[in-house]
Specification:
276 residues; alpha+beta; N-terminal domain of MutM-like DNA repair proteins; Helicase, Ruva Protein, domain 3; four-stranded antiparallel sheet; DNA-binding
Length: 276
DNA sequence: CGTAGACCCTGCGCGC
DNA sequence: TGCGCGCAGGGTCTAC
């Protein structure tokens, strides 16, 4: 479900609703996620106030007092929302953080039908070396992402540009939707080998990745099915998608019919006319 | 070492 | 109406 823009939109929407509020109680309703929920570790968050919300790659990081961090990953189908204290438990609600403080009682809940998501707690200082984060590449919206970085990272690699863009060891946050969008924007064919990308094209790809992710954040993310921010609002970047999910529709740039192909078991959408 | 494919799981829309 | 199939925004592990 969520790529970097959706997690960032979620972070921004939750920030005013969580900052300074206290987690009164942690309720694990259904521990079966990608990694089983650890009742004891999550329970230790109880009694602490939220001090900061951050994002790394597609992970949401909720820092609390006492140098602990709650880490949430939404997988494909996760939804994290603040609901009224008395809201009925939803199907596939895995964990609920009962909140007190400004705004009265409430609950932050993680609902995840497909169970590819994660929720765990760590001492804040241990994040960088934790196995979930240790091997992640650079953030795409920071200063480090340059055409030179891309070129350097591609040295000695084979394989298609799409896999490269989606490889979190290179650059994080680019998932299946925004990979198609960035390649369309940069006019690069998804099967193009990374060994055959010129510096000018690396520059176009770099600009396209940043541009697409940035615009998607501004527009509240992409809601294809069920993405919402922390208040339950859908995004509207889906109306701006140029390629993803548009097989058979005319390319907005050249008019050719957009096509779908499968790479690594996942759909890629592209224009056979203007992507080379 | 890098890369390709299988796999984890539920739900939805489609064609029959 | 019911059923089977393909597909879905993530990441990790195994086999080459």
């Amino acid at each position: 479900m969520p790529e970097l823009p959706e997690v960032e939109v979620l972070r921004r929407s939750l920030e005013p609703r969580l900052l300074g509020r206290r987690i009164e109680r942690v309720q694990v309703l259904s521990p079966a996620l990608r990694e089983p929920l650890d009742r004891r570790a999550l329970g230790r968050l109880a009694g602490r106030r939220v001090t900061r919300l951050r994002r790394r790659a597609k992970y949401l990081l909720i820092d609390v007092e006492g140098d602990s961090t709650l880490i949430i990953h939404l997988g494909m189908s996760g939804r994290l929302t603040v609901v009224p204290h008395a809201a009925p438990v939803e199907r596939h609600e895995h964990v609920a953080f009962h909140l007190a403080g400004r705004g009265g009682k409430g609950r932050l809940r993680l609902v995840d039908p497909r169970r590819f998501g994660l929720a765990f707690a760590l001492p804040t200082g241990r994040l960088a070396t934790d196995r979930h984060f240790a091997h992640l590449g650079i953030e795409p919206l920071g200063d480090e992402l340059t055409s030179r970085y891309f070129k350097q990272a591609a040295r000695g690699r084979r394989g298609p540009i799409k896999s490269f863009l989606m490889d979190a060891k290179i650059v994080v946050g680019v998932g299946n939707i925004y990979a198609s969008e960035a390649m369309w924007q940069a006019r690069v064919h998804p099967r193009r080998s990374v060994a055959r990308v010129s510096m000018a094209t690396w520059q176009r790809l770099r600009d396209a990745v940043r541009g697409v992710l940035g615009q998607a954040i501004e527009q509240g993310g992409t809601t294809l099915n069920d993405f919402t921010d922390g208040e339950g609002n859908a995004g509207y970047f889906q109306v701006s998608l140029a390629a993803y999910g548009r097989e058979g529709e005319p390319c907005a740039r050249c008019g050719r019919s957009l096509r779908r192909l499968v790479q690594g078991g996942r759909s890629t959408y592209y224009c056979p006319g203007c992507q080379r």
